[in-house]
Amino acid sequence: MYRVYKYILPEVEAELGKLRRKAEEIPDRELRKQALDSLSSKKFHCQGGAVYACPNLEQRHILIPLIVALQTISDYLDNLCDRSTSLDPDDFRLLHQSMLDAVNPDAPMRDYYALRDERDDGGYLHSLVSACRRHVKQLPSYGSVQPFVNELVSLYIDLQVYKHIRKELREPQLLEWWSMHRNRYPELKWNEFAAATGSTLGMFMLFLAASGNRLTSDDAKAIKHIYFPHVCGLHILLDYLIDQEEDQAGGDLNFCNYYDSRQMLAERIGWIAGRAREDVKQLPASQFHQHIIEGLLALYLSDPKVKSQSEVQSVTRKLMKNSPLTRLFFWINSIWIRKQQA
C-alpha cells in the first residue's frame, strides 16, 4: 500500500490527465462524452489494474502507461457499446479489434469506427492503440506472453460482442459460445466462464511477467492458466454483483442473475475465490497475488453501491464473514481512497 500511495496512484492520475486532455479535443460530441465519462466513472479500473506495477517498480514507466492505455480502450469501448446507437455485432467486433491491435505491434491500424455513424474522434482511439504498442515493445519478454495475451483479448472481444447485441440474441449466442469452451472448464457454469472472459487482470499479470528477463513460453502459459478462469472470474462476478441495480435499470445483461438464489450466488463466488487463492500459490511471490484477491473482495464489497441493494448486502455479509485481517486492511484502505478522491 505504501507503493500504491507513493507511486501508483499519482502516476495513474498523471496518465489519466493526459488522456483527459486528448478526450476533451474529440470533435464528435457523443464520442467525446463517452470518452470523458469512461475516464471519470471508471477511473478505479485503471488504478486497480496499475497495482500490477507494484512488484516491479523499476519498470513502472512501461507498465503503468500500458495498463492505463489498454484499460482505457476497454472502458471507452464498453461505454460506446452500452450506450450505442447500433446493435450491429460487426460494429462491436470492429471497434474491439482496436484492443487486439493494441497488443500486436505489427498489426495494421484500421478505421475502427467504419460501421457506425459517430466516427470523428480526432485520433483518440488510434493514440491509445499506439501507446499500448509502444510500451509492449519495451517489455523484455513480451514475445513469450503475446500468444496468451492475444487469447485473453480475443475471449474478451467475443464477450463484448455477444453481451451487447439485441437482447433476445444475447443468451443464445453466449450459450453457443460456451459450448465451444465448456470441456476445458467443466467446474464452471456458463455465466462464470463468460464473466472470467470480461476481466483484464490476466492480461495485466502477463505484462508484469513480461517485464522481467528470460520468461519462457511455458512460464507464460502456466501464468495464464493460474489467472484464468478463477482470479479473472472472481474479479468480474464481484463487479456484476454490485452493478445489479444499475444493470437492471439500463436493461444490461448481468451474470449474477443466473443463479437460483442469493445463497447460491454467495456460495459460488466464495468457491471461486477459494480456487483463486489455491491457484496463485503456484506463482513466485504468491503473497502479492493473495493480496490481489483479498483486495478485490474488499474493494468491491465496500463500494457505496452495496448499501442501496438489500440483496447485495446479504451476499456481502456472507462473503465478508470470518474475513482475514488482510481483507479488513484493504477494506479500510478502499474506503479511505474513495474519501480522498471525493
Number of helices: 17
Q: What distance lies between the first and last C-alpha atoms, to the nearest angstrom?
A: 19 Å
Q: What is the general shape?
A: globular
Structural class: mainly alpha
Fraction in helix:
over 70%
Main beta sheet strand tally, sense and closure: none
Order of helices and strands: HHHHHHHHHHHHHHHHH
Query: Residue-averaged pLDDT, rounded?
Result: 95
If you compute it from the alpha carbons, what radius of gyration comes out, rounded to the nearest whole angstrom?
A: 19 Å
Low-confidence spans: none
Strand element count:
0
Strand content: under 5%
List its salient traits.
single chain; 342 residues; 17 helices; 0% strand
Short description:
This protein has 342 residues and is mainly α.
Characterise the protein shown here.
The chain has 342 residues and is mostly helical. Helix content is 70%, strand content 0%.
Strand-helix topology:
Blueprint: H1 2-23, H2 29-41, H3 43-49, H4 60-82, H5 89-102, H6 124-136, H7 142-164, H8 167-179, H9 190-197, H10 201-210, H11 217-227, H12 230-242, H13 244-250, H14 262-280, H15 286-301, H16 310-320, H17 325-341
Helix pairs in contact: 1-2, 1-4, 2-4, 3-4, 4-5, 4-6, 5-6, 5-7, 7-8, 7-10, 7-11, 9-12, 10-11, 12-14, 12-15, 14-15, 14-16, 15-17
